[in-house]
Write a structure and sequence with these properties.
four-stranded antiparallel β-sheet; Arc Repressor Mutant, subunit A; about 210 residues; 2 domains; alpha+beta; about 40% helix; Jelly Rolls
């Protein structure tokens, strides 16, 4: 039997209390330091959660898409937003105010459990990401990101809309190193890379 997801439950319970907004590609949806007054549920599109490093370069903390959400942490803690959220594609978001969101959690146990499960998976993913940054070399981080980001299509496993700079910012490496690794993978026949589209042609090697 299909399990009802957190996103499906919040849409069903709170649709009449929320409003929908559409954002063009490159729009700043949330700015670091903003007040915490809403939770955002992604209906369509893809966004990146990012901060600026000490050298001013963008560091991508996560990339999220349809069926995912953001903003809960700041709502729970009452602290200002801890990162920027920028649309990578045109997006459609359901925005639910803080009071309505907290009331929905208090009044529906199934929703509250689904929310806890969703955020537990997020914490688990972030833990793996931090471990990777600490323990895995740059090639291993590139390979893991490609595998985790690939989507099955008729043309094979494809990663779209991700530049070399995006990959570098996500894994904490230089763009030059990422470009070198991807270039070698292309020469070896492991990937095909054209503009913002990478196709995995065969299993990636264990080392570089």
């Amino acid at each position: 039997m299909k399990t009802t997801t957190y996103h499906e439950l919040i849409t069903r319970i709170c649709d009449d209390k929320a409003h929908t907004r559409r954002f063009q590609k490159g729009a700043v949806v949330v700015t670091i330091g903003d007040q915490s007054n809403a939770v955002y549920f992604i209906k369509k599109g893809e966004l990146k959660i990012c901060v600026a490093g000490e050298d001013g370069k963008e560091v991508i903390l996560n990339v999220i898409g349809a069926g995912e959400s953001f903003g809960e942490l700041a709502v729970f803690t009452g602290e200002p937003r801890s990162a920027d959220v920028i649309s990578r594609t045109p997006c459609e978001l359901m925005i639910l105010g803080k009071a309505a969101y907290l009331q929905a959690l208090r009044s529906d146990a199934e929703l509250a459990i689904a929310a806890l499960e969703y955020h537990a998976r997020m914490v688990h993913g972030l833990t793996e990401q931090v471990s990777s940054l600490a323990l895995v070399d740059v090639f291993g981080r590139v390979a893991a990101l490609l595998k985790n980001s690939a989507v099955d299509t008729d043309a094979g496993e494809v990663i779209e809309g991700m530049t070399h700079q995006d990959i570098a910012a996500t894994i904490g490496a230089s763009r030059e190193m990422v470009s070198k690794i991807l270039g070698d993978l292309k020469k070896g026949g492991y990937i095909d890379s054209q503009r913002k589209k990478i196709t995995l042609l065969k299993p990636l090697p264990k080392g570089w």
